[in-house]
Specification:
148 residues; two-stranded antiparallel sheet; 4-stranded antiparallel beta sheet; elongated; alpha+beta
Length: 148
Amino acid sequence: MGLLDFLKPKNNGESEVEYDKELFERTGMKGKVLYRSKPLKHVSYLKEISKYSATKNEVELIKDAINKNGFWEESYEWRISTVMSSRIEPKIENGRSFFITTVKCEQEVMIPAGTIERAIIFKKLYQDFQMELWHEQGWASWTEKGKP
């Protein structure tokens, strides 16, 4: 048996080659499915709200970035070609200082927070909330879930 022989369709003892029926019906392609995973039950991205916190290291990292650049920012890909961006920056308005926390991933949410710790907590919460919304409802720009 050659190294890639497992990719070749098998003859089921008759003259017909054994192709995957569902694959053919769905795509029109004749092919053999090597492995089919079973869908897992969805586990929420959201935690109990009281479990969100800011670590001392996170606070220091953000303070350092704000002192150096005037803001802190991060982006990461949480699913294929889907990037979540977050930013925390200080702001003074009407003599009151606070931190504007922005979370972007198709929608944009801006949260005024009284401290860096609160800004981090709300950043984490809204990041998880955005992923949960996508999983449960799809993107807001769609006409309905699964239909762009």
